[in-house]
Amino acid sequence: MNDSIGQRQQICGCTDEQHFDTQLLYFTCSSLSSDDRRLYVISNRDGHPNVFVKDLETNEERQLTHNTKGILKSYVYFDGTLNEGLGKASVSLDSKRDVVYFIQDDCICKVGLDGNVVVLNHVPDNRMTAFTHVSDDGRLLCVPMTDSRCLDYDPETEGSGLDKRPVYNIDQRVQDEGLSSYLCIYDTATGALKYEKRVPLCWITHVQFNPADPEIIMYNHEWPFRDCGIRRMWLYNHRTDETIRVRTEGTDTLGDTKGYARKAADWVCHEMWSDDGNIIIYHGGYENGPAMVGRYDMRTRQYWEIALPEEYKSYGHFTMDHQQILCCDGYFKFSDDVAVVRENSTDNGPDPHKKDGAYISRVIPLWEEGVLRWVPLCKHESDWLGQDAHPHPIYNHNGNRIYFNSRSEQDIKVYYTDVKAEEV
């Protein structure tokens, strides 16, 4: 290991005398207000998950939600309670307006800095929800839903691993039983349902409005049991009522793919938009090949993909700053690193890489040259044991700091590391 890398700094979470978990919001939205002054987190410090906001200048913390019913059952939180509790996967932030959206029980809600919770609408019966997203202009909220049969099982007897995910293949059940997902779009001012788009034979868990055009929504097929390389990423154009596949099979990929073509049997994941709504970034791995990072240009319909070194086999997430510079919580390793060996039940998902990544890295992509420049900033020291302990790093809006989750002992806390001045 190189001793020149920096250190992580705790910014939110318990002290040595306390024990509770604190985590960032999911990385499809920011956890920071647009001026980087306020940090929004989910914490179970009172025994139930709730949303808190911390003023990073005064260190004042305020509780915004007052859930007393535990965790709502939804995607990722498979052993939550049906129709009761806070939807931890539902919390999303409008960072420009300091408004948090979330699902409590069957209520779709919003809350501002004044702590006034407003119920916008209700989740229909027999629907399972997942990660929500608010449009860049703050007018629309997308709540993805799936026929509840997709997660109709008893986690205590039919679940496995730390997260008690079903032992059956969820996507295959969706295909075999003809289940559907729904893009439900709500007016954030009135709560009215603007429209609902049914997507048959699909399990949607991630949604993101195009930052420049809220009529376009990116959505996913979660954990595809086949053809993940071309089934994962989709766009919905509300103007034309079209669903559009993002990644197709082909050999026309720019960058350095080490000779691998785009195939249906590849694995791709964690898509996200650039600020201008023209670029989609994703990552994954080639069939029987190395991990890779990809880029798709909406205007030219061109793909760039860069294969990672063969030894980069530790799963990680990629997100980016406003300048499209990436950061990552896995993959990178020094030549003398010894991988930590642990029993990690979340390794049993569809992705081909072990969850034993050790570093928070800034990753500078040179797409035309087919090169990734890795700058390790610190060790995140997370054990990756369960969804909430995934570091899920995000840049602040200024691009000079990266925040992430970590559990190296028994409690999940939020940390940050500064980006070196010469790398900003």
How would you describe this structure to a colleague?
- The protein starts with 8 loop residues before the first strand and ends in a 6-residue tail after the last strand.
- The protein is globular.
- The strands form 8 sheets. Strands 10, 11, 12, 15 and 16 form a 5-stranded antiparallel β-sheet that branches.
- The chain contains 3 helices and 32 strands.
- A hairpin with a 4-residue loop joins strand 19 (233-237) and strand 20.
- The chain has 424 residues and is mostly beta strands.
What's a quick, concise take on this entry?
The protein has helices spanning 155-158, 170-176, 228-231; strands at 9-12, 22-24, 38-43, 50-55, 61-63, 92-94, 99-104, 107-111, 117-122, 127-129, 133-134, 140-147, 159-160, 165-166, 180-187, 193-200, 207-210, 213-220, 233-237, 242-245, 254-256, 267-273, 279-285, 291-297, 302-307, 318-320, 326-328, 359-366, 371-379, 394-395, 401-406, 413-418. The protein has 424 residues and is mostly beta strands.
What is this structure's SSE topology?
Blueprint: E1 9-12, E2 22-24, E3 38-43, E4 50-55, E5 61-63, E6 92-94, E7 99-104, E8 107-111, E9 117-122, E10 127-129, E11 133-134, E12 140-147, H1 155-158, E13 159-160, E14 165-166, H2 170-176, E15 180-187, E16 193-200, E17 207-210, E18 213-220, H3 228-231, E19 233-237, E20 242-245, E21 254-256, E22 267-273, E23 279-285, E24 291-297, E25 302-307, E26 318-320, E27 326-328, E28 359-366, E29 371-379, E30 394-395, E31 401-406, E32 413-418
Parallel strand pairs: 21-25
Antiparallel strand pairs: 1-32, 2-3, 3-4, 4-5, 6-7, 7-8, 8-9, 10-12, 11-12, 12-15, 13-14, 15-16, 17-18, 18-19, 19-20, 22-23, 23-24, 24-25, 26-27, 27-28, 28-29, 30-31, 31-32
